[in-house]
Inverse folding.
């Protein structure tokens, strides 16, 4: 299996180098992931603007954009800003589901309430919206040290 993956990777690289196919093979960079999460935990205007710019940057990796949206949704100001982008139509279509789920499960109650109005969660088989994890499990959200955890009560 490993040799098949190596062969496909070599083929993709050769096609990209020849200009036949424009492709980008990236891996999630743990340092960059930590940087994006830290910017979200800071909850200041500068970090928020940087994350908003990253979420809108189509040249950035998709994993970076998803992490930026998730980091923004963890704070009230960031969540409201990303919901405003979605409401104005300035958010890429591929990020709308991420924004819907991230904002619906935001620790900021106002963000979670507005998320349902701007980007409603998809209905389930019985027509009800998908419940947020902490509600489905009968738990509550706790915010400590910049991280959001779930605790049973």
């Amino acid at each position: 299996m490993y040799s098949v993956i190596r062969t496909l990777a070599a083929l993709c690289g050769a096609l990209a180098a020849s200009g036949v196919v424009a492709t980008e093979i990236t891996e999630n960079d743990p340092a960059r992931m930590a940087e994006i999460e830290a910017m979200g935990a800071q909850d200041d205007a500068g970090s928020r603007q940087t994350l908003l710019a990253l979420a809108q940057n189509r040249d950035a990796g998709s994993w970076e954009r998803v992490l930026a949206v998730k980091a923004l949704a963890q704070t009230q100001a960031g969540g409201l800003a990303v919901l405003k982008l979605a409401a104005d139509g300035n958010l890429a279509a591929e990020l709308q589901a991420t924004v819907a789920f991230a904002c619906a499960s935001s620790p900021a109650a106002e963000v979670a309430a507005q998320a349902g109005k701007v980007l409603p969660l998809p209905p389930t088989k019985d027509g009800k919206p998908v419940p947020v994890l902490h509600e489905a499990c009968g738990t509550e959200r706790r915010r400590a040290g910049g991280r959001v955890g779930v605790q049973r009560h």
About this structure: The longest strand covers residues 139-144. Confidence is low (pLDDT under 50) at residues 21-25. Residues 2-18 form the longest helix (17 residues).
